[in-house]
Amino acid sequence: MERLKAHKKKILIALVLVASIAGFSIAYFARLSRSTENAYINADVVNVAAQVNGRVVAVYVKDNQHVHKGDALFDIDPEPFSIALERAQADLALARQSARQDSAEIAVARAQVSQAESDLANARSTYVRDKELVEQHFLSQQSLDDAQTRMQALQASLEQARGKLTKAMSAPVKTSERGDVLKAQAAIDQARLDLEHTHVIAAQDGQISNLSLTAGSLVGTGVPLFALIEDNSFHIDANYKETELAGIHPGQDVDIQIDMYPGLHFKGTVESLSGGTGTAFSLLPPQNATGNWVKIAQRVPVRIKFSPTDAAHPLRIGATATVSVQLK
Questions:
Q1: What pLDDT was estimated at residue 12?
Q2: What is the CATH number of domain 46-78+198-230?
Q3: Could you state, in order of their start, the residue ranges of all structural domains in the chain?
Q4: Could you report the per-residue pLDDT of 166-178, keeping only the tens digit for each?
Q5: Which CATH superfamily is domain 33-43+231-326 in?
C-alpha cells in the first residue's frame, strides 16, 4: 500500500514537472513569435470600367481568365466617336480657313494704307505748288482751297486705313496661336482620345474576376464592370490586437499557414503597420464620446508580403490564414 502511494506520488510529481516545462516552453516561444488567426489574403485589384459611354460590341475575355498587360478586354461601339472625330476635324479646317482669310485681310489693309499714304503725299505736293501759284497770282484762291480740302480728306482716309490695319493685326499673326484654332485642335485631341477608349485593354497582368459583361450591354463612364486581380500583388492583412503590436515592425519574418492548404507553411515578411485601427477607417466609425462606453481592445491591420509562391498553390482573395511573426 505504501509502495502504491509512493508510485502515485512520483507520477503526480512527473506530471507537474511536464506541465511546468510545457508552460515554460509556451511562454518562451510566445516571446519569440506573435500569432493571430484573424488574417485574410488580399491583393491589388483593378476595377475595370469604361472611360466613355456606349454599347459593348465585343467581349474578349471570360470570367477567371488570366490576361497579360495590353490584352484586349472589350470594345465599345466606335462609330459615334469616329463621327465626332470627323466633325472636330472639319471644325479645325474651318478655323484655319478663317485664319487664312484674316491674313488676307491684313495684306489688303496694308495695301490700302500704302495707297492712302501715297495719295496724301501727292495731295500735299499739289497743295504746296498751288499755294505758290496763288501767291504769284497765276491761280485762284478757290483752287488752293480745293487742294487743301482734298489733302484733309486723304489724311482722314489714311487714318481710317491705319485703323483697319490695326484691327486686322490685333489677332495672333500665327494661325496656330489663334483661339478658335486651338479650341478646334483640342476638340480633335479629345475626340481621338475618346475613340481610343472604345478599345479597352488590360492595365496589368492578372486574373479576371466577377465578370458578367456581355455584348450589347450599355456601359457608363466610371462604372466598375469587373475586377482584375494583379499578379504578384498578394499579401495578408493580419489584424492584431493593439496590445499585441509591441515588438512587431517591418522586415520581420512571418510563418504563414493558409486554411485552404492544411499542413503547408508559407513564408512572408512584415511590410507595414496601419496608421489606424480597422474601425477608424470604417464608413461609420464608432463615436466613443457618446452613449455607454465599453473598452474593447481594437485591432490594427499588419500587412504581410508573401515570399514567392509556386503555381501549384494559387492564392485566393479572402482566404483565411494563421500567421506568426518572428520577433527575434
A1: 64
A2: 2.40.50.100
A3: 33-43+231-326, 46-78+198-230, 81-193
A4: 776 665 555 545 6
A5: Efflux pump adaptor protein, beta barrel domain (2.40.30.170)
pLDDT of 1 above 60:
no
Count other Cβ atoms within 10 Å, centred on residue 240.
Answer: 22
pLDDT value, residue 105: 63
Give the model confidence (pLDDT) of 88-122 as tens digits.
Answer: 888 888 877 776 665 656 666 676 767 767 766 77
Q: What does the block give as the cell for 196?
A: 481610343
Q: Which residue has the higher pLDDT, 81 or 169?
A: 81
> Any idea which residue has 485703323 for its cell?
163
User: What's CA 260's distance to the chain center, in Å?
Assistant: 36
Backbone angles phi, psi at 51, to 5 degrees: -100, 0
Contact 235, 306 (CB under 8 A): yes
* CA separation for the pair 191, 181 (Å, rounded): 15
- What is d(CA 42, CA 295) in angstroms, rounded to the nearest whole number? 29
SS3 of the chain: the string is: CHHHHHHHHHHHHHHHHHHHHHHHHHHHHHHHEEEEEEEEEECCEEEEEECCCEEEEEECCCCCCEECCCCEEEEECCHHHHHHHHHHHHHHHHHHHHHHHHHHHHHHHHHHHHHHHHHHHHHHHHHHHHHHHHHCCCCCHHHHHHHHHHHHHHHHHHHHHHHHHHHHCCCCCCHHHCHHHHHHHHHHHHHHHHHHCCEEECCCCEEEECCCCCCCCEECECCEEEEEEECCCCEEEEEEEHHHCCCCCCCCEEEEEECCCCCCCEEEEEEEECCCCCHHHCCCCCCCCCCCCCCCCCEEEEEEEECCCCCCCCCCCCCEEEEEEECC
CB 116 within 8 A of CB 157: yes
Chain-wide mean pLDDT for the chain?
Answer: 82
pLDDT on residue 28: 46
